[in-house]
């Protein structure tokens, strides 16, 4: 009797562990950081692209009635080329300010990129060493943050596509 | 007097180099405990991705500002979550992770004791 119970327990344990591991196999092991909704934007100081002027975040996100879209981009980033038409489309939105964060780029190449594809940004900030992107909790290009009242209300990892474009339009209505 | 000057210079050189070495050790220790979010499976120390390079620059800056290990971990945890650390901290989400192996070890020890030592006697 005792032997029967222990072998039954062993089999049950085996089955349980098997299913746990089998389920684990199907889980994605690529981690994406979770952004807390309504997280405050970080305070930072940096230089403006093409100008030798310093600017702080307090001078950028001034108007609480407007939405701001901070887009991290680089001329060497291929997905940034794909999302560029969507950013140009977003410039038509009256209550949205597009801010570019030029990530680890070469000024001349970045300028060429904008001359060829168009400049959707009202202001472009510089991040030569990538530390400003870390301040925002980003880990690659492109990444986009929708901001209202100095709070991040939406974070997009990867290029903006049709779905994201519609979502942004819906959020800023 | 000249000898004193040389001695002082030597003292300065050795002290500064040990200070630099300490900073470097701390940076290595921190970067080895950080997971690179671009090449997942590699630590920031091992990775050469743009993200890992920027993290290394940032850690250098933070150490120079006088921040300690915990402050730097907290800064990164606030931005990327607990997952960026290889060694999870002891919190309500990780009690099981930390305590379970000890628990299993104790049960194993108890079984060995019961099966072999008590039986022998």
Structural description of this entry:
The complex is a heterodimer of chains A (173) and B (121). Chain A contains six helices and eight strands; from the N terminus they run αβββαβαβαβαββα. By secondary structure, chain A is an alpha/beta fold. Chain A has a single domain (39-171), classed as Glutaredoxin, CATH 3.40.30. The longest helix of chain A is centred in the first third of the chain and has 25 residues, at 2-26. Chain B folds into two domains: 2-89, Helicase, Ruva Protein, domain 3 (Orthogonal Bundle); 94-121. The radius of gyration of chain B is 23 Å and the shape is flat. The N and C termini of chain B lie far apart (78 Å). The model of chain B has no long low-confidence stretch (mean pLDDT 87). The chains are: A alpha/beta (173), B mainly alpha (121). Chain A binds chain B through residues 29-31, 33-34, 104, 129-131, 133-137, 139-140, and chain B through 35, 37-38, 40, 50-51, 53-55, 57-58, 61, 79-81, 83-84.
Give a quick set of tags describing it.
heterodimer; A: 173 residues; alpha/beta; two-stranded antiparallel sheet; elongated; B: 121 residues; 2 domains; 69% helix
Summarize it.
The complex is a heterodimer of chains A (173) and B (121). Chain A has 173 residues and is α/β, with parallel strands linked by helices.
What is the general shape of chain A? Answer: elongated
Task: Tell me the name of the CATH homologous superfamily of the largest domain in chain B.
Answer: Cytochrome C biogenesis protein
Number of strands of chain A: 8
Domain module count of chain A: 1
Strand content of chain A: 15-25%
Oligomer: heterodimer
Report Rg of chain B: 23 Å
What is the CATH fold-level name of the largest domain in chain B? Helicase, Ruva Protein, domain 3
> Judging by the overall fold, what is the CATH architecture of chain A?
3-Layer(aba) Sandwich
| CATH architectural grouping of the largest domain in chain B | Orthogonal Bundle
């Amino acid at each position: 009797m005792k032997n029967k119970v222990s072998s039954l327990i062993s089999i049950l344990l085996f089955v349980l562990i098997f299913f746990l591991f089998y389920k684990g196999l199907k889980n994605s092991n690529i981690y994406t950081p979770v952004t807390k909704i309504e997280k405050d934007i970080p305070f930072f100081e940096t230089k403006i692209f093409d100008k030798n002027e310093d600017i702080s975040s307090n001078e950028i996100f001034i108007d609480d009635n407007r939405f701001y879209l901070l887009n991290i981009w680089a001329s060497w980033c291929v997905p940034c080329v794909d999302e560029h038409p969507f950013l140009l489309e977003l410039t038509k939105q009256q209550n949205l300010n597009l801010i570019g964060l030029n990530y680890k780029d070469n000024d001349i190449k970045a300028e060429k990129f904008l001359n060829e594809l168009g400049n959707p940004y009202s202001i472009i900030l510089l991040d030569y060493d990538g530390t400003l992107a870390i301040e925002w909790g980003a880990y690659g290009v492109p990444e986009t943050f929708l901001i209202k009242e100095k709070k991040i209300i939406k974070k997009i990892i990867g290029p903006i596509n049709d779905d994201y474009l519609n979502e942004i339009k819906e959020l800023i209505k | 007097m000249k000898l004193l000057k040389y001695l002082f210079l030597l003292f300065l050189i050795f002290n500064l180099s040990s200070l630099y070495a300490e900073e470097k050790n701390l940076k290595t220790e921190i970067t080895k405990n950080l997971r690179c979010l671009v090449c997942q499976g590699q630590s920031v120390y091992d990775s050469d991705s743009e993200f890992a390079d920027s993290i290394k620059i940032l850690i250098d800056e933070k150490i120079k500002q006088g921040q300690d290990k915990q402050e730097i971990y907290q800064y990164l945890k606030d931005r990327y979550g607990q997952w960026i650390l290889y060694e999870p901290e002891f919190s309500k989400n990780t009690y099981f992770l930390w305590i379970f192996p000890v628990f299993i070890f104790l049960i194993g020890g108890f079984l060995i004791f019961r099966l072999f030592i008590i039986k022998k006697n």
